[in-house]
Specification:
Length: 197
């Protein structure tokens, strides 16, 4: 484990040796983090979260409690991962995505029912989207940026908008299969130089 400065990491957290941890990170009790995962600066991981191997947890992410994050999962900056969320392997979640665990907010009035949410293998959730509690998003589903998903999604396709609706079928080249996909690495050669924009 390679923690940065000002980190608070509880003794009961189980963190693999090869995990890299930025500055100002807090990791609470009973959190598990698998090998080769990177945790960015200013991340808060509350008790009971499970994070797999080869994940990227971007800066300022807030993981709010017990949840399960698979392997090769990429959470970009400022994501809020609610308690009860299950994220399967090879999921990409763009920045500023908020998930929730409660639908009817009875703040201070009792009877607050919590729901579990699942994001299936290979899903992509576009930046600044929100997911209402209790969804079971099928594998390979793509959610466009800025979407507000409030209704169940029954089959994989591209959904977008507020409320999110199906906008397209999935192009075949967008479907991930198998458990042994290559790691998503940042390859600068794929991107245009400033002169080419
Ligand atoms: C959803 C998405 C993948 C669709 O891309 P695409 O297949 O090229 O879709 P198109 O641009 O052909 O759009 C198809 C239609 O959906 C609409 N649409 C596309 N994305 C939308 C979005 N996010 N919200 C609302 N409508 C959207 C388009 O306006 C278009 O509508 P029209 O047919 O009435 O003109 C893409 O728009 C998107 O949101 N990507 C996510 C990007 C992101 O969050 N990246 C984060 C990591 S960098």
């Amino acid at each position: 484990m390679l923690p940065g400065q000002n980190c608070i990491i509880t003794l009961s957290a189980k963190i693999a040796d090869s995990v890299s941890i930025g500055h100002n990170v807090t990791i609470e009790n009973d959190v598990i983090v698998g090998p080769d995962t990177t945790i960015g600066h200013n991340v808060l991981i509350k008790s009971g979260a499970r994070i797999g191997h080869h994940c990227f947890i971007g800066p300022y992410c807030y993981i709010t409690g017990p949840c399960s994050i698979g392997n090769h999962v990429s959470l970009r900056a400022f994501d809020v991962i609610s308690r009860g969320l299950e994220i399967e392997d090879h999921v990409f979640i763009g920045s500023n995505v908020t998930t929730t665990s409660i639908i009817h907010i009875n703040y201070g009035r009792g009877n607050t029912r919590q729901f579990k949410t699942r994001i299936g293998f290979g899903c992509v959730i576009g930046s600044r989207s929100t997911l209402i509690a209790g969804l079971n998003i099928p594998p390979n589903t793509i959610i466009g940026q800025g979407s507000n998903v409030v209704k169940p999604i029954d089959h994989p396709a591209i959904y977008a908008g507020n409320p999110a609706r199906k906008i397209k079928d999935l192009p075949p080249d967008q479907i991930l299969e198998g458990e042994s996909l290559p790691l998503m690495a940042w390859d600068d050669s794929q991107y245009p130089t400033p002169e080419e924009w």
